[in-house]
């Protein structure tokens, strides 16, 4: 009978854990819906600003923004690593950090220097643990990819690019494909390649564009602003996608944890019943044996 | 066409307005601009302020934007609204803050970039996940 009390306690504790994981699953499910919504809402802005930027880059202006100019030598690379602030979301952060690390290894073998901008606690912790150079960071964004809070970190990177500190800038994040699937991706942010500019924008062919805007008050500051906002929009979109990925990964992970807890409870209950039955049988046989002896 | 044009007001966080309008006024950097259909293509910054919109058969509507960009094409006008109040000084302060936070984090940096250790750490995490997966598949 000695074991049965312990088993009972164990069952109780697993049940408590299951309650927690189930609650987290439901919280993540509702947050995921909101995060997806937010991700979708950010799309029109991204598309509009891309159209404007793409048009501007193809129209004939005397001023060409530095973001559009490909540099011949690449010595320093800036990376933006987007991760979640909290754990308990399966392999989400591990996947994106592994991709980042592999790429960093390739670059450093080629003799390039790397500086990182970390968005999210997990990536920051990892990057500082492995001793990477961190130029800027934002953590504790919560559940909304707050543009106002991203601006600072992004500006450090953009300034670094215009001041020739970086020759290239990449972003790493988890792309949201569906609830079950998130994919770690690497994208080149700067310089803006023609491919990036033209994606989703096939409807107006280059030859059709023969006009240019009137810039008020003059071309340079307006183009500068558009370009900075365009990059910010891309980063915002990446952060929004990463957040949706985080919530759905957490939901799936927590669902698996709840299911596992259920299995463990079933097993433990079986063992508990067996041991109880064994104890009863033993007691009975003792009584019968005692009676026989009398 | 001819008497109306399409107006979109979008910010990074949401789409604020989308629809056909007859006339609009926006607070451009150089002063207010009124836009009728078939305006010359124009690109300008706008200040924070009210955008006045007059749609067909509707009352005039006022929408507040906290600055942004105004793009005008003959039949389509787009306002790319900022979600935060922006100024160079403010942005600079934010950038400094992000930099300072990073420096703080760098202070307790233990060693030089050690790829081997980092990789080992990640591989461990990955194999834990893989093991859990396997256990689950076994019908545990």
Corresponding CATH architecture of chain A: 3-Layer(aba) Sandwich
How many separate domains make up the residues of chain B?
2
Total count of helical runs of at least 4 residues of chain A: 6
Number of domains of chain A: 1
Q: Can you identify the CATH class of chain A? A: Alpha Beta
Strand content of chain B: 35-45%
The CATH homologous superfamily name of chain A equals: ATP synthase, F1 complex, gamma subunit
Major sheet size, sense and barrel closure of chain A: 5 strands, mixed
Main beta-sheet strand count, sense and barrel state of chain B: 7 strands, mixed
Q: What form of chain A results from the Cα inertia axes?
A: elongated
Estimate the helix proportion of chain A, in percent.
55-70%
The CATH homologous superfamily of the largest domain in chain B corresponds to F0F1 ATP synthase delta/epsilon subunit, N-terminal
List the strand order in the largest sheet of chain B: 2-1-7-6-5-3-4
pLDDT < 50 runs, ≥5 residues of chain A: none
Question: What's the number of helices of chain B?
Answer: 2
| Assembly annotation | heterodimer
Helix content of chain B: 25-40%
What is the overall pLDDT average of chain B?
83
Name the helix and strand elements of chain A from N-terminus to C-terminus, one letter apiece. HEHEHEHEEHEH
Q: Can you list the strand order of the major beta sheet of chain A?
A: 3-2-1-4-5
Family (chain A): Belongs to the ATPase gamma chain family.
Protein name (chain A): ATP synthase gamma chain
Function (chain A): Produces ATP from ADP in the presence of a proton gradient across the membrane. The gamma chain is believed to be important in regulating ATPase activity and the flow of protons through the CF(0) complex.
Main location (chain A): membrane
């Amino acid at each position: 009978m000695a074991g049965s009390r312990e088993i009972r306690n164990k069952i109780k504790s697993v049940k408590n854990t299951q309650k927690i994981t189930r609650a987290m699953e439901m919280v993540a499910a509702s947050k995921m819906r909101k995060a997806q919504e937010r991700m979708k809402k950010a799309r029109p802005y991204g598309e509009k600003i891309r159209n404007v930027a793409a048009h501007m880059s193809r129209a004939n202006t005397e001023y060409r923004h530095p973001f559009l100019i490909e540099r011949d030598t690449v010595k320093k690379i800036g990376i933006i690593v987007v991760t979640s602030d909290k754990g308990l979301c399966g392999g989400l952060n591990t996947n994106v950090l592994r991709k980042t690390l592999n790429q960093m290894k390739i670059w450093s073998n080629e003799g390039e220097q790397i500086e990182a901008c970390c968005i999210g606690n997990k990536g920051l912790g990892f990057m500082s643990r492995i001793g990477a150079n961190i130029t800027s960071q934002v953590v504790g964004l919560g559940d909304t990819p707050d543009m106002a809070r991203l601006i600072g970190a992004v500006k450090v990177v953009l300034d670094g690019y215009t001041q020739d500190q970086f020759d290239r800038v990449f972003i790493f994040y988890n792309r949201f494909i569906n609830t079950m699937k998130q994919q770690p991706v690497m994208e080149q942010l700067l310089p803006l390649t023609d491919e990036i500019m033209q994606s989703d924008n096939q409807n107006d062919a280059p030859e059709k564009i023969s006009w240019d805007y009137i810039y008020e008050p003059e071309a340079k500051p307006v183009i500068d602003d558009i370009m900075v906002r365009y990059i910010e929009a891309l980063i915002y979109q990446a952060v929004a996608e990463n957040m949706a990925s985080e919530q759905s990964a957490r939901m799936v992970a927590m669902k698996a944890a709840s299911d596992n807890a259920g299995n463990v409870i079933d097993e433990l209950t079986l063992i508990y019943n067996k041991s109880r039955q064994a104890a009863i049988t033993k007691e009975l046989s003792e009584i019968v044996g005692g009676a026989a002896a009398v | 066409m001819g008497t109306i044009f399409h107006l979109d007001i979008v910010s990074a966080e949401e789409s604020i307005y989308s629809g056909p309008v007859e006339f609009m006024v926006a607070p451009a950097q150089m002063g207010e601009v009124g836009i009728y259909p078939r305006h010359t293509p124009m690109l300008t910054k706008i200040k924070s302020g009210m955008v006045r919109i007059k749609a067909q058969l509707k009352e005039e509507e006022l929408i507040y934007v906290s600055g942004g960009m105004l793009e005008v094409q003959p039949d389509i006008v787009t306002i790319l609204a900022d979600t935060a109040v922006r100024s160079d000084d403010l942005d600079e302060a934010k950038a400094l803050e992000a930099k300072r936070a990073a420096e703080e984090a760098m202070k307790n940096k233990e060693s030089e970039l050690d790829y081997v250790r980092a990789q080992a750490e990640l591989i461990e995490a990955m194999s834990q996940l893989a093991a859990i997966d396997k256990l689950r598949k076994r019908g545990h």
